[in-house]
Design a protein that fits this description.
- The structure is a single chain.
- The chain is of the alpha+beta class.
- The protein is about 20% helix and about 20% strand.
- The chain is built from two helices and four strands.
- The chain is elongated and about 50 Å long.
- It starts with 10 loop residues before the first strand and ends in a 15-residue tail after the last helix.
- About 5% of the residues are buried.
- The model has no long low-confidence stretch (mean pLDDT about 75).
Length: about 90
């Protein structure tokens, strides 16, 4: 869903043909809540920023760049590791 020239990749679509002939369509949205806990410094800073800002010569991300552009990024052809906590 994000274009190839996007600065961050936080949503994606996938499709695959199932053995029974049906198609599985996946809608994927990056979830940073595993890394950003309520009330923490990073949470408060993200709340103050409210959104990433895209300027002609730079981007000011809402979250630390490594988190939004690498750890929680949904890039095509890159394996996604899921952490499920119950």
């Amino acid at each position: 869903m994000d274009p190839q020239d996007a600065k961050d990749f936080d949503d994606a679509l996938s499709i695959r043909k199932m053995p029974d002939g049906n198609w599985e369509v996946g809608v994927h949205i990056a979830d940073v809540t595993y890394y950003v806990k309520p009330g923490t410094l990073i949470d408060r800073e993200a709340e103050n920023r409210a959104t990433s800002v895209y300027l002609v010569d730079r981007t000011i991300p809402m979250l630390p760049e490594r988190l939004c552009n690498q750890i929680c990024s949904l890039r095509a052809q890159e394996e996604v590791v899921l952490f499920l906590c119950f």
